[in-house]
Amino acid sequence: MAPLKVVISGVTGKMGVETVGAVSREEDLTLVGGTCAHDRGGALTTPTGDVPLSTDLDSLLEQTRPDVLVDFTNASVAMEAASKAAARSIHIVMGASGFSEDQLKQLDAMANDNGVGIIVAPNFALGAIVLKKLAEQAAPYFEYVDIIESHHEAKIDSPSGFALALIRSLGGNKQFTRNQPETENLANTRGGEHNGISVHSIRMPGKSAHHEVIFGAAGQTLSLRHDTLGRDCYMPGVVRCIRDVVTRPGLVIGLENVLGL
After folding, report:
1. Bridge partners of 43?
2. What CATH number is given for 4-120+231-259 in this structure?
3. Is 132 among the catalytic positions?
4. CA distance 107 to 86
5. Is 98 helix (H, G, I), strand (E, B) or coil?
6. How many CB atoms lie within 10 A of CB 89?
7. How far apart are CA 260 and CA 63, in angstroms?
8. Contact in structure between 10 and 35 (CB atoms under 8 Å)
9. Which pLDDT tens digits describe the chain residue by residue (261 residues)?
10. Which of 115, 158, 217, 243 has a CA positioned 20 to 30 A from the CA of residue 93?
11. Is it true that 4-120+231-259 and 126-228 share their CATH fold?
12. Where are the domains of the chain?
C-alpha cells in the first residue's frame, strides 16, 4: 500500500515543525509539502529531503495532490484551507484552536458534501483526553466548577480550544452554580462563564499548555489537572488522526472519538 501523502498548513509554526519530524519518521506517511504565512523560499528541508514550501495553498494542493491536509494555523485560516481541501476530496486533520459552533456546522457540511473525513482535535495529548473523560464522569456529583488554563504569551485566542471543549462537554447537559459577588472591585475577576462554569485564561512566558478543572461541593473540592511539558506528547495523536481520517468520511470532533474512549 502506498504511503499517505501529507501537506501541513502552518508548517513553519511550532506545531508544524514538530509534525514534520513525526510524519518523516513514519514509513506509511510521506510529507509532500507545506504552507506558511510569509515567504521563506520555495523549499522546506525535512529529515527525508526537501519538499515544496508555499504561501499559496491552492497551488500547493494542485502541485502535490495530497491525501491528507493537516492544519495548524488558526480558526479563520483553517476554515478557508478546509474549503479548498474538501473541494479537492482531500481529507483534513485540524489542530487549529477556537472553532465556533457555526464553524463546526460548516465543517460537518463540507465533509458530507464532499465525501471526505475531517477530524477537529482541540488537543492531541492522550493525558488531556483522559482529563476530559474524568471530568465528565465527576460533573454529575458537583454543583460548582472552575476551569483554569495556561498557555504561552503568544497564543492568540482565549480561552483555549480545549478549554472550550471542556466547557461544552461539562455544561452541555447541566447548569452549574456560580457565585455572583455583590461587589466586583475589578471587572471580569470571576472570569468567563458558560452554564455556570467559570473559565480563567493565563498567558505568560514559560507556559506550554496546562488545564485544570476544579469541582466544588460542601466541605470538599476535586482538582483534575493536565500539563503539557513538550509538544512531542501531541505527535502520537496527530499521526493516529492522519491514519484514521482517510477511513471514515464525515466530521469527528475530539481525539477521544478517534480513539473510541
Report:
1. 52
2. 3.40.50.720
3. no
4. 9
5. coil
6. 11
7. 35
8. yes
9. 789 999 999 999 989 999 999 999 999 999 999 999 899 899 999 998 999 999 999 999 999 999 999 999 988 899 999 999 999 999 999 998 778 889 999 999 999 999 999 999 988 999 999 999 999 999 999 999 999 999 999 888 899 989 998 999 998 878 999 998 889 899 889 999 999 999 999 999 999 899 999 999 999 999 999 999 998 999 999 999 999 999 999 999 999 999 887
10. 158
11. no
12. 4-120+231-259, 126-228
How many H helices and E strands in the chain?
Answer: 8, 13
Q: Quick check: 71 and 10 in contact, CB under 8 A? A: yes
Nearest of 195, 191, 198, 192 to residue 174 by alpha carbon? 195
Length of the chain: 261
From 132, 151, 200, 211, the catalytic residue: 151
Question: DSSP letter string over 177-193?
Answer: -----S--SSTTTT-EE
Cβ count within 10 A of residue 24: 16
User: What is the CATH number that goes with domain 126-228?
Assistant: 3.30.360.10
Q: What cell does 4 get?
A: 499517505
Nearest CA among 121, 79, 71 for reference residue 103: 79
Q: How far is CA 216 from CA 46, 140, 142, in A?
A: 49, 12, 6
8 A C-beta contact, residue 227 and residue 206 = no
Point out the catalytic residue in the list 155, 174, 207, 210. Answer: 155
Instruction: Please tell me the pTM assigned to this model.
Output: 0.83
